[in-house]
Amino acid sequence: MISIRRQLTREMLAAFFVLLSGALLALYFTARDELIEQFDDALRAKALAISSLTSADHERIHVDVKDRFFRSFQKDNPEDYFEIWPAEGAAVARSESLGGADLPKLERLGRPRRVELPNGHTGRAIMVKFSPSQEVGEHHGEEARPELVLAVASDGEALAEALTELLSIGAVCGLLLAGTMLWLIPRVLRRGLQPLAQLGEQAGLIDADSLTTRFPTVGMAAELQPIVSRLNELLARLEVSFERERRFSADLAHELRTPLAELRSLAECAIKWPESREPGADQEVLAVAMQMQTIVTNLLMLARAEQQRAAGPLVPVDISQLVEDTWQSYRTRAEERGLKVRWELSPVNIPADAGLLRSILGNLFENAADYAPAGSEIRIRLENSESGVVLKVINQAEGLEPADVPKLFDRFWRKEEARSGGRHFGLGLPLARMFAKAMGWTLTAALDEQRQLEFTLTGSNPARQA
To answer: How many CB atoms lie within 10 A of CB 172?
Structure first.
């Protein structure tokens, strides 16, 4: 299992070690170059001092290095060395520290180089050309002054020890810093990720019975607030879904209780008195079964519509023709009750789901055909506005009150004074509204002062809005 904390620990430690190694190496090489530069500057200064103390007469070269500042060139304290050559020929002067040995000659003048010294140590040397000064009383002219080559070398043991000490100090400091970070980074990450661990513990306590729980956002780390917000939105959707399922189960149990009781009663009577079985008993059983099937089908369709899964692809539909075709299924029922229909249809063709729209119209027309007072008038009006289509179904509803209008779209709501008969279960209008919502349309109801119930179905026209 991948651990974010372990991964972050490894990556941070690796990055720290790379940066630390780079910083220590850069510091070491910078300090080393500075020490070598200082060492070489000292060599140049010694070469300049020796050349300034060198004089010549017609017989020999004199170098006055008896001052206390030049003790390192003496044989009892051999740390520095010098040797002087003419342009051609053997050495004409050398330091006591060399004894009888010679310094190596360098290929280039004026540039210090690493050399092996006569005492077996490693050091650095520099070679320069100069013309010695004349002894007092000697006047041979400028042409008589010889050109000499001076080599000055210094033992590098002290420099090597300083570099070794610098490297040791850097290594010790690096190890201390690495050990500190190995101890510190896991603890810092553990503390920094503590809010995430607490969030995980809170999420683990949520189950189907505690979907109303919401994660607190106050005081939450800024990085976790988007996650907390999405979790709260997810919990809200889960709560709605679970509530929808509970309501579906409760509604189904409530509505099936009566037909199941009827089926049980018919079955008990048939078992107890088989000889007195009436011919219409099977018809009653079939009617009850069909009633149960209708309830279950409508509830399932309502659940799908609430989840916005009922709508299919929207295609251009001739709304006026669909209205007329749908009414044909209810025309006979309306004529039997003496209902008159006033048509006010305008040609409308907009994208819609023809199947869902037919179901919506069927519920509205069935409601009007069954509940409008006998001999009254039903008005079906279809208008085409700039924003879309508006369909109105208007009929007289004497048994309804203004307070009943909001309840028309509640599940299983039936007002017995206005609604009777075994065909209606109080699911048609809720189903029609959910179908309209699934298409992006709206379905509303209103009751005016003359007890005219008006259903308004409004659908947008994307082509016109664009």
So the answer is: 10
